[in-house]
Structure formats: C-alpha cells, structure tokens
Amino acid sequence: HHSLSKPCLPLPVLQAAHCQMIKDLSACLLGQSLRVDCRYENKTSNPLTYEFSITKDNRKHVIHSTISVSENIYRSRANVTMHKNLVCLYLQSFTVSDEGVYMCELKATNDYTGNQIKNITVIKDKLEKCAGFSLLIQNTSWLLLLLLSLPLLQAVDFVSL
C-alpha cells in the first residue's frame, strides 16, 4: 500500500528544495490575540491557498482557510493577512481553551508536490510577546512616549523652580 505523496529525500537537491516550502512556523502573543506566523519560500507566483487549524482532544478544528470551511466559533475571531513569504493568522481573545497544536497548511495552485504542513504546539504560559512593530503599536507609540515623558517634564519643571 503506497501513498501517492513522495517523501522529502535530502539526496536530490531539487526535490529537497521543492519540499521545503514552509520554512518556519512560530506563535506569539499580541495583546489579547494569538499570532501565528507561517513563513514560506515562494517557489512560484501561483496563487497560494492556506489553512490554519488546531488539533485539541484529538479533533481537528479549522480556524481559517481558503481550502476548506472553517468553524464558526473560530471564524468570527480569526483573520489572516498575507505578505510576501508570510501568512499570518490572528486569533482574537486568545485563552487557555485555545491551546493545542496549531497547523499551517499551504498549497500553491497547480503545484503537484502536495500540501505543505507544519505544526506548532501553543501553550499560553509559554508564549512570547510578539516582537516587531504592528500598525497598532506604531499608532500608540507617540502616546506611550508622551506618557513616559510626563514625569520627566514635571521633574524638569520642579528643578527649574
């Protein structure tokens, strides 16, 4: 009984390169949201379809997908942004009940190597805060700076008296 999908063998360079579409899957906390970054290598300009799912209690729940239908409870809280070489899932109001194994599945149209899949186990207490600026942070940074500099200004006034 042979499955149709070819294994990724490191021997032929081309084959290995072709199998290495998803490079990295990482998760972090952005405020109250979970952000899952699925980085991939762009081998083709063909449209990319994706699926983010979570497996918990041995059941797979589709969170956001262009491949299959996502579950309502997740769809309303999730959104996905696509950038060059990165598909990003945001899951709002992330709680302990959203812990589990998150899976990113990518498929390029007309790519016959099959779907690329990578997993990451997400546990709330073990998540790092997201590094890098999001638009939200950029918009609030001047406010933060203002708040941070207020005590300084008061101190300076006090000295100049």
From TrEMBL:
Q: Which GO-annotated molecular functions does the record name?
A: GTPase activator activity; integrin binding
Ig-like domain location: 12-121
| This protein's UniProt keywords | Cell membrane, Disulfide bond, Glycoprotein, GPI-anchor, Immunoglobulin domain, Lipoprotein, Membrane, Pyrrolidone carboxylic acid, Signal
Q: What membrane topology does this protein have? A: Lipid-anchor; GPI-anchor
What domain of life does the native source organism fall in? Eukaryota
Query: Record keywords: Signal included?
Result: yes
Matching entries from InterPro entries are given as: Ig-like_dom, Ig-like_dom_sf, Ig-like_fold, Ig_V-set, THY1
**Its GO CC terms?**
dendrite; external side of plasma membrane; focal adhesion; membrane raft; myelin sheath
Please report a single Pfam family linked to this protein: V-set
- Which PROSITE patterns does the UniProt record give? IG_LIKE
What the protein does comes down to:
May play a role in cell-cell or cell-ligand interactions during synaptogenesis and other events in the brain.
The protein in question is named: Thy-1 membrane glycoprotein
Native organism: Mesembrinibis cayennensis
Gene behind the chain:
Thy1
